């Protein structure tokens, strides 16, 4: 059996579909299934069992001999949430419990970290584990992810294989339920569909023109392909960046969304909310050499390719992955 936590969420539900494509059908989906807004992400999946996240470790104590691999992708991901207790509970302490269980039962583990750990990027975006304790995230979400990375690197008891993945700006199908935390592409599509125009945040940094803020946008299909690679690879444990390796502007993202929809560009700018300005990242770009060095050689979707596939094959069709 393969366990996927956060299984009804965005990335994890795409991973379950990808596992099914490769005929892995004994999937144990772990989540808070009382959240009905995610139910469409579960449709059509080949699943062995659903386990509520609060009951998972009792379940694992009984079934660990049958578990081949765990993808721990469940987390609280709201970067505008400032209640540290929420992140300590769901992102830090639950992940520690997961790690300890995988170490005890020697189950290989891939878990979700985040590019939010890099903060303003003053130390760069290299997944060098020696610099991880020096990083200064800009919000409690990033702090919770970095705190766990630091803790994991300090442990002497480890799963026989483990990898932490620093997800950059992931976009793609199955994020319909994420509301304000969905990708800019998702929001842009719906704005253009409703009124023929879209809004981007104005730059409040003199080094960047409006719309020229840059992010490493990575398509979710690439993310799940990397997860599959690591499941089969099972060596070279450590923490890895997972982005496209190429920073692109929000303007490029917006223009590609319009083009994929067949609509003439019409872009307005609005002020970045004041509560976000101090912690706003103007540039992110994953150094992907570490993952490449262990044998992952598949090319990543370009922004043009990813936006077109997402918009035309999912958003316009109302489909899930």
UniProtKB/TrEMBL annotation:
Q: Specify the superkingdom.
A: Bacteria
Any binding details for the cofactor? Binds 1 NADP(+) per subunit.
Known cofactor(s): NADP(+)
Protein's name according to its UniProt entry: ADP-L-glycero-D-manno-heptose-6-epimerase
Tell me which Pfam families the record gives: Epimerase
- Does NAD count among this protein's keywords? no
Name the protein family: Belongs to the NAD(P)-dependent epimerase/dehydratase family. HldD subfamily.
Among the GO biological process terms of this entry, one is: carbohydrate metabolic process
Gene3D superfamilies in alphabetical order: NAD(P)-binding Rossmann-like Domain, UDP-galactose 4-epimerase, domain 1
Recorded source organism is Pontibacter flavimaris
> Quick check: keyword NADP in the entry?
yes
The UniProt catalytic activity note for this protein reads: ADP-D-glycero-beta-D-manno-heptose = ADP-L-glycero-beta-D-manno-heptose
Q: What does this protein do?
A: Catalyzes the interconversion between ADP-D-glycero-beta-D-manno-heptose and ADP-L-glycero-beta-D-manno-heptose via an epimerization at carbon 6 of the heptose.
Q: Which residues bind substrate?
A: 169, 180, 187, 201-204, 215, 280
Q: What are the leading ranks of the lineage?
A: Bacteria, Pseudomonadati, Bacteroidota, Cytophagia, Cytophagales
| Annotated residues for binding of NADP(+) | 10-11, 31-32, 38, 53, 73-77, 145, 170, 178
Transmembrane stretches, start-end: none
Q: Name one GO molecular function term.
A: ADP-glyceromanno-heptose 6-epimerase activity
Q: Which residues form the NAD-dependent epimerase/dehydratase domain?
A: 2-243
Q: What is known of its domains?
A: Contains a large N-terminal NADP-binding domain, and a smaller C-terminal substrate-binding domain.
Pathway(s) served? Nucleotide-sugar biosynthesis; ADP-L-glycero-beta-D-manno-heptose biosynthesis; ADP-L-glycero-beta-D-manno-heptose from D-glycero-beta-D-manno-heptose 7-phosphate: step 4/4
Task: Give the annotated active site.
Answer: 141 (proton acceptor), 178 (proton acceptor)
Print the keywords alphabetically.
Answer: Carbohydrate metabolism, Isomerase, NADP
InterPro entries referenced in this protein's UniProt entry, alphabetically: Epimerase_deHydtase (IPR001509), Heptose_epim (IPR011912), NAD(P)-bd_dom_sf (IPR036291)
Q: Give the multimer and partner information.
A: Homopentamer.
State which Enzyme Commission number(s) the record gives: 5.1.3.20
